[in-house]
Amino acid sequence: MEFFFGIFLPYTAFGVFLAGTILRVRGWLRVPVPFHLTLFPAPRDTVGRIRSIAMELLFCRSLYREDRLLWISVCLFHISLALILVGHVLGIFFMRGQFTFIGLSSASSGQLSLCLGVITGVVITISLGALTCRRLVNSDVKRLSAPSNYFELLLLLAVALSGISMYLPGLHVDLQAVRGFMGGILGMHPAPLPNNVPFVIHFSLVNILMFYFPLSSLLHFAGFFVIRPILVESPPVYPTPSGTVQRSAFATRRLFPDIPLPRQTSIAGEGEGR
User: Fold this and answer.
1) Domain extent for 256
2) Is residue 266 part of a domain?
3) Model confidence over 175-219: pLDDT tens digits?
4) pTM exceeds 0.90, yes or no
5) Number of domains in the chain
């Protein structure tokens, strides 16, 4: 049991997560894009394209225009998730003393860390609950939802709720033991698994999530960096010079290097041939 949950499961989950993510992104990058997919209006300069990608990444601008209520739930989920990830790293490493760097006492830092942990846990749970209810209540979304969509939301909810459970009275984990265990995992010299059932459940659910992540739509974060630059790449100029090949800059020959790519005649070229 100790070997399975403390050594085999985390290392296997991380290996599957890393390899699966790389292979899936590599597959996306190898798909040829024979023509421009630019969404108009699109910026024509590099700074404008970077700004457009950043605005979409940080503020989900297109979602805000389409569905404000969904935008709120999505933003709450992603912001709380980011805070939870950062909080886990800092809280475990500094033993909840990270706020001493801004002048708080150790006791105050610990209390603030606990308070923020509970708040972000509750917020991410509420946002996930709202997203789940939307799939169940909205007839259009429900009709388009696959079983995997519900499984992903329920798995994320299970991870969030199991994390919150460790804040309940009598279920607090030994943070020093958790720090030693996680440090051993990262340093490739595994330490004993903390003897705390809520922690083992939470840690196991996180590993299951890592197993499933590369196979799911949760990988949309990586997909964003694949598709978004294509959608905001420099649009073609019309009328184009004679003989210009109308292909996206993201097109590739790697799949079929021996087959000549189709050449599209420019508008100017068509006029000359008549």
Assistant:
1) 2-66+146-273
2) yes
3) 889 999 999 998 888 888 998 899 999 999 999 999 999 999 999
4) no
5) 1
